[in-house]
Amino acid sequence: MKPEEIAKLVHVGRPDAPYGARRLARCYDIADLARVARRRLPSGAAGYLDGGGEGEWSLRRNRLAFGELELIPRALRDVSEVDTTTTVLGCNLPAPIICSPVGGPRMFHHEGELAVARAVAHAKIAYGVSTLATQPLEAVAEAAGDAPVWFQLYLWGDRSDARALVRRAKRAGYRALLLSIDCAVRSERDRELHRGIALPTPQLDLKTLLDGAIHPDWSWHFLTSPALGFPNLSMSGPSSRDKLEQMFDGTLTWEDLEWIREEWDGPIALKGVLRVDEAREAVARGLDAVIVSNHGGRQLDRVPATLEVLPEIVEAVGDDIEVLFDSGVRRGSDIVTALCLGAKAVLVGRAHLYGLAAAGEAGVRHAIDILERELKMAMALCGARALGDLDRSLLRPAAPPDLDPTHARAVQAAISS
Ligand SMILES: Cc1cc2nc3c(=O)[nH]c(=O)nc-3n(C[C@H](O)[C@H](O)[C@H](O)COP(=O)(O)O)c2cc1C
Fold this sequence. Notes:
Helix content is 43%, strand content 12%. It has helices spanning 3-11, 30-40, 43-50, 57-67, 113-123, 137-143, 160-171, 190-195, 206-213, 216-224, 240-246, 256-263, 276-284, 306-317, 332-340, 350-381, 407-416; strands at 69-71, 86-88, 91-93, 97-99, 126-130, 149-153, 176-180, 268-273, 289-292, 322-326, 345-348, 395-397.
């Protein structure tokens, strides 16, 4: 038998390696990517990725809320073609999915934002880049090619650095500005404290060193690539670490929007809206979008699941402003649910980060593919040919737990996915 014939036999039954990354071969959904990511990351980095504020009540609520709604599909419609295209903040997108801004992605993969940017360049979806990015924002914009990049702003100190940063983002071609409002002060996360990872000064003790030793691939890349820093903070004056210490000083107010408007003439979204009155204020101030978000359950613990507050915010301002949604999205059916409740699009944080940690650019591309595939499938199975066909008539509350013996299992699955 010839070697190529043997190779074919050996290959029988082995799934393809998405984008050449063998470790993604058995990753069929985001939960699979999360498992690979957690295996590859030291526990400190994994804790930073997975964790939520304090005791993580809101983190759990975000997932459970999806389990409290069911989809009632419409059948007998021609769904041979499903159109997921949309326009968000003036950007034409192939799907209502945006990679959300995250601080410190080089903790998960040594290329950090550059890997994500190359992945969105292929998918042509939008990417929000954090003030706490670990790559220069110009390099990220360039790597994203034609895909739209949005800049997420945090403020600190006397605002002059923030003004300069906004101008820099504009020059670099960022198309929208996201102002995160849910980080007045830094939150505490029990999980990070226990694992010694609390930024900006992670502990380096025997435990973390041993943790690094049993994750040699991550450690090798971490130690052989440039030191992790925040290159967009250190334009002038104190080091980026000092500036990080000054951030979240509690001084952000509505008045800041006035100078932001002077610097930025493109679309602006408020990220972290959980209240109807704040959504109305955003409309009154002429903003372009609100992002219903609780920061993935990472800031104030005991806030409601974002899915719970989405309907009242859509009802109040949905005709006047774009309402985007995040926190807890892991599946195409989650996206369908949020869109049925009136969201224009969803941002995904951990879902793309699990891909990043699992296999860099290939992992993010695979994560986006999974979400797009699942979204199309869920839409087709709901009888929706276009995003406009998704409405509340496709939803109903799930049976209450005492009537539904499968509820406990569903809740458990929601928590662990
Ligand atoms: C590791 C990590 C870091 C984050 N850093 C930021 C940040 O710098 N700025 C920001 O606005 N949101 C940040 N977020 C929140 C995300 O933008 C997004 O709101 C959240 O991840 C959505 O929830 P999900 O992870 O369940 O999708 C971060 C989230 C994670 C997981």
